[in-house]
Amino acid sequence: MIPPRKRINLKDPGIYSTSCNMDYSEAEYVLRLIMRHKPEAFIAKGETEKSCGPCQLTAERETGKGAHVDWWVYDDSEPQRYFEKEDQE
């Protein structure tokens, strides 16, 4: 049996953010889920930069989201300058 679809809560600020993970294993899990997309997905490692937009540990708003970070990236910013592609083994 297929469960009913969840409605997207448009009042949840997390749906408007870029998802980041402090725990590498969580990032690997997400990567495995989206590997079928083109261009090929990869993990980038770095630190959020406040000049690119505000970020928040998701656990500050929701329970059970310990290592997840929401980052609201400004349109005219270049966050890629603060990250490097992580080599996949």
Describe, in plain words, how this protein is organized in 3D:
- With 89 residues, the chain is of the alpha+beta class.
- It is built from 1 helix and 5 strands; from the N terminus they run βαββββ.
- The strands form 2 sheets. The chain has a 3-stranded antiparallel β-sheet with strand order 1-4-3. A two-stranded antiparallel ribbon has the order 2-5.
- The protein is globular.
- It starts with 17 loop residues before the first strand and ends with a strand.
Short account of what is shown:
By secondary structure, the protein is an alpha+beta fold.
The residue ranges in which pLDDT falls below 50 over 5 or more consecutive positions are none
Shape: globular
The SS-based structural class is alpha+beta
Share in β-strands: 15-25%
Determine the N-to-C terminus distance: 37 Å
The oligomeric state of the chains shown is: single chain
Write the H/E string, N to C: EHEEEE
Main pleated-sheet profile: 3 strands, antiparallel
Topology:
Layout: E1 18-21, H1 24-34, E2 44-46, E3 55-57, E4 68-71, E5 83-85
Antiparallel strand pairs: 1-4, 2-5, 3-4
Which structural traits does this protein have?
89 residues, alpha+beta, globular
